[in-house]
UniProtKB/TrEMBL annotation:
Similarity remark: Belongs to the protein kinase superfamily. TKL Ser/Thr protein kinase family.
One CC-aspect GO term: cytoplasm
Location of the region described as Disordered in the Swiss-Prot/TrEMBL record: 29-48
Organism this protein belongs to: Setaria italica (Foxtail millet)
Catalysis performed (reactions): L-threonyl-[protein] + ATP = O-phospho-L-threonyl-[protein] + ADP + H(+); L-seryl-[protein] + ATP = O-phospho-L-seryl-[protein] + ADP + H(+)
Keywords: ANK repeat, ATP-binding, Kinase, Nucleotide-binding, Repeat, Transferase
Protein name per its UniProtKB record: non-specific serine/threonine protein kinase
Length: 485
């Protein structure tokens, strides 16, 4: 959030008392409903927007009538409104006498409502020329911006009040340049349900996780934010990839998948927001823990397999991850694994269930990349099974299994057909685990099992390697239980 937005928030807090907010809510004709989702957990009501007159020209949320108006002309000025709200209401009604009386009584001409809108904004939206002139004579801020960045001149122009617009321009008003995104819609009613207000996201310096991905706060909870660089707006491939990822994230809902929070598509920069897990990714966990005990490795493998099986069974088309690795698998507070990063690759359908990279020249150097994908050949969902086999191997054997640079290791695996060696003692490999890993990373895609089959086999393995219940397993000390998560 920039300094201007913070300053506006502080100003709103000072000028809008709780008593005025209550009365303003009674005045509003909009349904008093909580914000979509009610915050990160989807529970509870978020801040309520109070509406009067026509909405801001840059407000992405449709409300009121088709032209953004409400039926305020049918209302009389309530006696119990505070001075600021009476000023805005009088400006909305075109009551120049009432406005002047309030100003002479000491009301600040630039008083604002919860959305940062002044009496000049309201009068400009309604085309109340006499009130606009009066406010300007009282030195109203002609370039005041509301929470969406709209000015009185921009509002007057948006609603076709060109007499007011020309008056404001003659007095020196500036019209902010509208930064439209490639996904911007002209009709507010077409704004997607997942759209977030960018002012709700709080960023801090130095919190870039990876290139283009940041850590932010949304309603007090930490979230991951992927930002599309403004330089990519002119790149059709980048925009298509952004829209594709957004479509898949919105569609996929499963306990073993990182959940989609929302997106910013109507403002610059465009962003995708997803849930954040402070326990980090599987790669970091393996780096600290090293080799996992068999029962835990199998439990983790089941989490991964269930998430990927859901993606592969999506209708009408399966979702192929294509970039699975321990860095794209995160741990939640309960120690459960969730798959992240799906939808980040641009794929095109070539025939039947076969896909190919949208840009054949892209060279993938990840050691988890399947051979057919590495060679830019058509592939199917089994590329995720190949990566899964290597991840399962890594959980049981420990890290790293590729001492060489990733580019060289990927070439050895994909072009030379080499595979990591099984170094651990047989006791670390329950029955059928080695065979399952070898089938998963088989160079022939048709040999690799589906995730539905993998889940069945892993359940049997998990049942056979489960530790027998003993008193010291039943009565675990709290800190021991926490360590095993």
């Amino acid at each position: 959030m920039d300094g201007a937005a913070k300053k506006m928030t502080r100003t709103i807090s000072r000028q809008l008392s709780s008593g005025a907010a209550k009365l303003w809510r009674q005045l509003s004709l909009d349904p008093h409903t909580p914000r979509r989702g009610g915050g990160p957990g989807g529970v509870g009501a978020g801040p309520t927007r109070f509406a009067i007159a026509r909405q801001s020209s840059l407000d992405p949320t449709p409300r009121g009538g088709p032209d953004g108006s409400s039926a305020h002309q049918q209302l009389a000025v309530p006696e119990n409104l505070d001075a600021t709200m009476r000023l805005l209401f009088s400006a909305c009604q075109g009551d120049a006498g009432g406005v002047e009386e309030l100003l002479r009584g000491g009301v600040d001409v630039d008083s604002i409502d919860l959305d940062g809108r002044t009496a000049l904004h309201i009068a400009a939206c309604e085309g109340q020329g006499e009130v606009v002139r009066l406010l300007l004579d009282w030195k109203a801020n002609i370039n005041a911006r509301d929470r969406w960045g709209s000015t009185p001149a921009a509002d007057a122009k948006h609603y076709g009040h060109f007499e007011v617009y020309n008056l404001l321009r003659a007095r020196g008003a500036k019209v902010p340049k509208t930064k439209k995104t490639p996904m911007a819609v002209s009709n507010p009613k077409q704004v997607p349900a997942y759209e977030l207000n960018p002012l709700e996201l709080e960023f801090r310096r130095g919190e870039e996780v990876t290139k283009g991905t940041y850590l932010a706060k949304w309603y007090g909870s930490k979230v991951f934010v992927k930002i599309l660089d403004k330089d990519s707006f002119s790149d059709a491939d980048s925009i298509n990839a952004f829209e594709h990822e957004l479509t898949l994230l919105e569609k996929a809902r499963h306990p073993n998948l990182v959940q989609f929070v929302g997106a910013v598509t109507q403002n610059v920069p465009m962003m995708i927001v997803s849930e954040y897990h402070q326990k980090g990714d599987l790669a970091s966990y393996l780096e600290i823990k090293g080799r996992l005990k068999p029962y835990k490795a199998i439990r983790f493998a089941l989490d991964i397999a269930r998430g990927l099986n859901y993606l592969h069974e999506c209708k009408p088309e399966p979702i192929i991850h294509g970039n699975l690795s321990p860095k794209n698998i995160v741990r939640d507070d309960e120690g459960q694994l969730k798959v992240a990063g799906f939808g980040s690759l641009s794929l095109i359908k070539v025939s039947g269930d076969k896909l190919q990279m949208a840009q054949p020249t892209t060279q993938l150097d990840s050691v988890y990349t399947a051979p057919e994908m590495y060679r830019n050949e058509p592939f199917d969902r089994s590329v995720d099974v190949f990566a899964f086999g290597l991840v399962l191997y890594e959980m049981i054997e420990g890290t790293p299994f590729h001492p060489k640079p990733q580019e060289e290791a990927a070439k050895m695996i994909c072009l030379e057909g080499l595979r990591p060696q099984f170094k651990n003692k047989p006791k670390y490999y329950p029955n059928d685990v080695k065979e399952l890993i070898q089938e998963c990373w088989d160079p022939t895609p048709s040999v690799r099992p589906t995730f539905a089959e993998i889940i069945v086999r892993l359940n049997k393995i998990h049942a056979s390697c489960a530790k027998p219940a003993r008193w010291r397993d039943t009565f675990k000390l709290p800190w021991k239980h926490a360590e095993e998560r």
